[in-house]
Design a protein that fits this description.
With 142 residues, the protein is mostly beta strands. The protein has a single domain, classed as OB fold (Dihydrolipoamide Acetyltransferase, E2P). The protein is built from 1 helix and 8 strands; from the N terminus they run E-E-E-E-E-E-H-E-E. It has a 5-stranded mixed barrel. It has a two-stranded antiparallel ribbon with strand order 4-5. The longest helix is centred in the middle third of the chain and has 10 residues. The protein is globular. It starts with a strand and ends in a 36-residue tail after the last strand.
Length: 142
C-alpha cells in the first residue's frame, strides 16, 4: 500500500539518528497526533479527541536534516507514505502505523521557525556534504 498522507502532531520521542554500514542515514521518532478538540455533549466543555500514534522514519538527506532540526516536544507537519503492518512476536500481536517522511516542517500554528537551506546541487542524494571552503585571511591595513 502506497498511500500518501499528511499528519500534524507532537514529536513524542527524541529522534534517533543512525547511519547504516552501507552509509544510509536513517532518522526515526514517534509522533502523537490528537484530533481537534470536540464538544462533550454532557458537560458542554471542549475535550481532546483520540490520540493516534505513528512511527515516522526518514532516509538520506531528509534524515540528516530531521536529526539537526526536530526535537522531542515540538509540533510538526509530516507528509509521506503511510504503511500499516500487522505484527506478531509469538506472545503479543498488534498493528504498527508508519510514515516514511518525504517532507517535514515545524507546525507554525504553534510557533516560529528559522529555515536554513542546505546545498545539495551537484552531488548524489545520501553522499556526504563537501568540506566548507576555508575562509580567506583578512589583513587589516591601516
Amino acid at each position: 500500500m502506497n498511500t500518501k498522507t499528511t499528519i500534524t502532531g507532537l514529536v513524542a520521542t527524541t529522534p534517533r539518528h543512525l547511519i547504516t554500514a552501507d552509509g544510509l542515514p536513517i532518522t526515526s521518532f514517534r509522533l502523537a497526533s490528537t484530533s481537534q478538540k470536540l464538544l462533550d455533549p454532557t458537560s458542554g466543555t471542549l475535550v481532546d479527541g483520540e490520540t493516534n500514534w505513528f512511527t515516522i522514519t526518514a532516509f538520506r538527506e531528509i534524515a540528516i536534516n530531521i536529526a539537526g532540526s526536530v526535537n522531542k516536544g515540538e509540533r510538526v507537519v509530516v507528509s509521506g507514505i503511510l504503511r500499516v503492518r500487522d505484527w506478531d512476536n509469538g506472545s503479543r500481536a498488534g498493528t504498527s502505523v508508519e510514515v516514511e517522511a518525504e517532507a517535514i516542517g515545524h507546525d507554525l500554528a504553534f510557533g516560529t521557525s528559522v529555515y536554513t537551506p542546505t546545498a545539495f546541487v551537484g552531488r548524489p542524494l545520501g553522499s556526504p556534504a563537501p568540506e566548507p571552503e576555508p575562509e580567506e585571511s583578512l589583513i587589516e591595513i591601516g
